[in-house]
Amino acid sequence: MMMRINKICGILNLTESRLATNPLTLFRPVAALPFACRYRLIDFPLTNLSTAGVETVGVFLKDNSLRSVYDHVRSGREWGLDSVHGGLFFFSAPSEDRGTGLGTEGDIYNYFKNIEFIEKSEADYTVVMGTRMLCNVDVKAVLRSHIEQGADITVVYKSVDHLSKDDQQISCMTIGDDGLVRGLKSCSLQMKENKALVNMEIYLMKSTLLIRLIRNAVAENEHCNLNDVLHRAIIKLPTNGFEYTGYLKSINSVKSYYDANIDMLQEANMTALLKGNQNIHTKVKNEAPTFYARTSHVSDSLVANGCMMKGEVAHSVIFRNVTIEQKAVVDSSIILQGSYIGSNAELRYVVLDKQVRIEPNTKLIGTKDKPIVIEKNSVISRISEEGEQVLKGVSHFHGNELEV
Q1: What is the pLDDT of residues 230-288, one digit of tens each?
Q2: Which residue, of 60, 119, 147, 222, has the greatest Cβ tally within 10 A?
Q3: DSSP assignment of 202-260, as one string?
Q4: What is the enclosing helix (H) or strand (E) of 139?
Q5: What residue ranges define each of the domains in the chain, with the CATH number in brackets?
């Protein structure tokens, strides 16, 4: 069989730092974060790749969080990645480099030890992307631009009018009139500028070039990450900038995760992200329809299947199998799967991780800038203070049981 022209191999770089999104990422990588009632963040790059006809995808992790990702994607059937001509492959770092998620050598050695994966894919091009940049990118269009411009590397960027404090962790680019990348610097240096070109950490190049970059980094005994290698490469080599104009949110803090979910309450944002260049695919779960009692009042919210709604919900995102009892109030909050909210409880600007139990008469009041986050499997129980239990201005709770 003749090899298809311009075949693409995909690499999902899941060595993203989890510290800024704790406690939501204490026991899961960023890729496994639930989103918009039924998705995980990894669904977006997987859809971007599979829609472009990518048949072979390597998932590279740096710590022992493989299970949460594998439980969701399995064989990749939902994304058409279970064919006999390619497939979904998982690569974890050696055990001595796990644990903290940081490692001592950087992730480049994990790619070097598994470089045969790229060679055996027999792909002309390889595209590298992560899951922190929430977007719906047409990878075919990126490849067409790459071939037309004739550059060594193509990097995807987004022009934004305003940078938030959370965006200081990402990098911005300078692009010349010829469309080539001229420089790369921290977005923290552009906070006061009107326009910023955000590096979306999506890189497309010939597979032979990527292999050479990885081998050179190891030969020079560099203890670095693949992103560091690619950052240097786009400055040294002719690099084409491809402008993305769709919805983008960089998930690099609890607040940005909260904001991205709340953004989906606006139809324009939901359409742009979930149905933009292609419909986003995810693992299918069959649940009974949500039950709405006569005592319930739900407005301006996304509610998944399998819920029991008896209280009041406004401007919130409610995941599967959540129970909200009578006279409970949930406003501007994100409630993940399997959580329980007792009667007369009040939650405003709160993120509940999975299987959290909020006892009756408990009050959690956060703010838009500092939503309260409750760790997975926690129990929040009532304690009276002058007839009212109020918790204000607290960012996180840790531990399996907490009294407030």
Answers
A1: 999 999 999 999 999 999 999 999 999 999 999 999 999 999 999 887 899 999 888 89
A2: 60
A3: EEEEEHHHHHHHHHHHHHTT----HHHHHHHHHHHS-EEEEE--S--EE--SHHHHHHH
A4: helix 139-149
A5: 8-274 (3.90.550.10), 291-403 (2.160.10.10)
Instruction: Give the C-alpha distances (Å, rounded to integers) separating 224 from 108, 184, 216, 228.
Output: 6, 17, 12, 6
DSSP, collapsed to helix, strand or coil, labels residue 92 as strand
Express each pLDDT in 81-100 by its tens digit: 987 778 899 998 765 544 44
Tell me the sheet residues that pair with 171: 186
Closest to 237 (Cα-Cα) out of 225, 229, 248: 229
In this predicted model, what pLDDT tens digit does every residue of 309-324 receive, in sequence order?
999 999 999 999 999 9
CA gap 324, 309 in Å, rounded: 5
Torsion of CA 368, 373, 379, 385, to 10 degrees: -50
| Cβ-contact 115, 212 below 8 angstroms | no
Q: Would you call 90 helix, strand, or coil by DSSP?
A: strand
CA-nearest of 335, 283, 270 to 309 is: 335
The structure tokens listed for 233 are: 């490469």
CA angle 78, 81, 85 (to 5 degrees): 150
